[in-house]
Amino acid sequence: MRVLASEITGYKNKRVELAGWVHRIRSLGKISFVILRDRSGTAQLVLDEKPEFTHESVISVQGIVKENEKAPDGVELQVDGESLKVLSAANPELPIPVNQDPKELSLDAVLDNRIISLRIPRIRQIFTLQSAILKYFAQHMRSEGFTEIKTSKLIGTGTEGGTGLFPVEYFDTRVYLAQSPQFYKQALVASGMERVFEIGPAYRAEKHDTPRHLNEYVSLDVEMAFIESEHDLIDLEQRILKSIFQGVKEDCAKELEAWQASVPEPEEVDSVPRITHDEAKEIIGKLQGRRVFEINPEGERVICDWAKKEHGVDAVFVTGFPRKKRPFYTFPSGNKTMSFDLLFRGLEITTGGRRINDYGMLLETLPRFGLTEEGLSDYCQIFKYGCPPHGGFAIGLERLTQQILGLSNVKEASLFPRDRKRVRP
RNA sequence: GGGGGCGUAGCGAAGCAGGUUAUCGCGCCGGCCUGUCAAGCCGGAGAUCGCGGGUUCAAGUCCCGUCGCUCCCGCCA
Q: Using the CA of A297, which nucleotide's C1' is the nearest one?
């Protein structure tokens, strides 16, 4: 019966089968050591002959688990040569090394050879951690009575004015890839679900090419009824982040350690300051010694450094964005809005806010953004027949992953990133 | 969309006051080796120097164009 590499310690002096990829071969002639890798980790095999297989071939072996202080983990598998099976031979000329530190590899080499680079333990850890984020996000949402939804990614019109749309040929008409599930999650709140969340792709046809942009990313979307202001949403996001961070800390201790990374403690999440857009500009201006008109990426880093120093946490909620900086559906508050961003370790990972839920207010607002009721008739329908006050936000999955691990490029946090030039593999 | 940097073997790099056969590490192939831990030692193969054009007796090296990558800005999650 097959056991996992990480489990053999529990099978001392027993006969077991291991199966996996050949991670490393150290042949000394009459004795050879092979590091076998499977989803759980690695184990050392001892062979009495020179291996005939190549690195990264998939093999299965049987043997007795023996204790030996000279073995890497104190135990190793003394392989019964007869039992060795090469299940799938790998070409010896690997495009990139799997058993070396990937820090030396260029991002291009890693992404061009994605199928192979994901075998590199350190790289696969990124996605183990990302999986934990997804798990604890969904778990937390359910614990607060949110319904998980999956909405169409083919839409008739855009929602996030300003951001580009990818046109899609749809029979004899043209539709677009959704920039966000914005309209649908609002519609479902109004449908009576009250609280919904969606984990799904979002598409942005921006020609940006930066270490923090993807043209396709995974959005952790939340929308909730019966709120009064963005502060209810910030409270919710803090609870979500605490769950995610605690879960990641429990499940991914190994990954965090390997990456020399850490997640904020619950007290730190609780102490993330909430400052207005105007206050943020003032603080950044003071620290940079010049007037600040917009919060640019450098400003985002500066304000997070400030939060770290003043509040002991490397994150900040920025509220009160001016109306013209936010989409038309954002609930106004004077010439500001009930909206917020979350900057985490110098990068924006969330945008959200209360939405306009009053039909009349919406109709008044549309012209200010050059929009018409006719052009947004489906959307306007949501508010015609009773829609509670509500709001929501979205967390960028890859960005959150990137910031937790300190990755230098968000593409590293996407299994198969799509950017301006890359549509493969 | 604007600006900077870089393209040399499968991977990572050196060579760039122009000058014989383009160098190093890892990997790969062959040999030796019974306790390896990025094993070690010996030998070997592997490069149209991104592509196109130009200057020159001579171009990886200089000039122009082009493609690709990368970083910064704008915009966003």
A: B73
Nearest nucleotide from residue A26 CA, by C1' atom: B36
Q: Which of A339, A349, A261 is nearest to A300 (CA)?
A: A349
Give A114-413's CATH code, choosing from 3.30.930.10, 3.20.20.70, 2.40.370.10, 2.60.40.1180: 3.30.930.10
- The distance (Å) linking the CA of A69 with the C1' of B38 is 20
Backbone angles phi, psi at A160, to 5 degrees: -105, 75
Chain B nucleotides with an atom closer than 7 Å to a protein C-beta = 1, 10-13, 26-29, 32-40, 68-77
Asked if residue A46 lies in contact with residue A54, where contact means CB atoms within 8 angstroms, the answer is no
Taking only the tens place, the pLDDT of each residue in A232-262 is 999 999 999 999 999 999 999 999 999 989 9
* Separation in Å: B9 C1' and A111 CA: 20
Is the entire prediction scored with pTM above 0.95? Answer: no
Closest CA to the C1' of B37: that residue is A72
Distance from residue A152's CA to nucleotide B63's C1', rounded to whole Å = 54
Buried b (16+ CB within 10 A) or exposed e, A37-50: bbeebbbbbbbeee
Among A396, A392, A237, smallest CA distance to A330 is for A392
ipTM (interface pTM): 0.84
Per-residue model confidence as pLDDT tens digits over A344-362: 998 999 999 999 999 999 9
| A326: nt with nearest C1' to CA | B76
CATH superfamily of A5-88: Nucleic acid-binding proteins (2.40.50.140)
Give the domain ranges of chain A: 5-88, 114-413
